[in-house]
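Quick check before the chapter quiz. The format below is the same one you will see on the exam, so make sure you can read both the input and the output lines.
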Amino acid sequence: MITSKIHKTLFLAFFLPVFLSYHLDAICQQITNKLRTDGNWNLDDTFYPYSSGNITFTLTEMPCGASTLLIQLVSQNGLGGFHTRTFTSNELNVAKYVGVNVTSLREHLFRIQAMVDDFTNINCINPSFSGEICYSKYVDPPDCEREKNLAIDNCKNEKVIEITVPIATAIIGVLGVYNMAKSSASYPL
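Here is the expected output.
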């Protein structure tokens, strides 16, 4: 009895991470974006499809000469959850949440905007930053009408098989009895 409980516990402990890994389908992408030289937010029109939840950003390369970089995400049309985060040159390779409990209404897209806080210290012609953004992958919701029609079609096909198999078996049986009766009439035992 105790052994059975231990095995059940070990079974659940082993498969729990496996099951959870299927429910969380995250994407991490390396990005590099240019910055505007007038000190305003950049206008990168690369949109990333997300589902919902939390979004993290890890700054891997700071713009040349900058000590502070502001990162914010902008939803295509959503309910929010995005926050402007400040990254300093001391925080390279540190993951920070740039979106917490992010949700959207219709279009599951966001884009990244960045701005250097101390633009006077930039010492290169084309400043840019690099990093890794991680977010939950967007998966299209199931088409219920199509799924329902497929299920109905499969059900109809199964009913056809359920009806056809006994009828075919009966016909084969009748033919077998007929052939056996015919051959036993011509060859008496």
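If your answer matched, good. The chain is about 35% helix and 35% strand.
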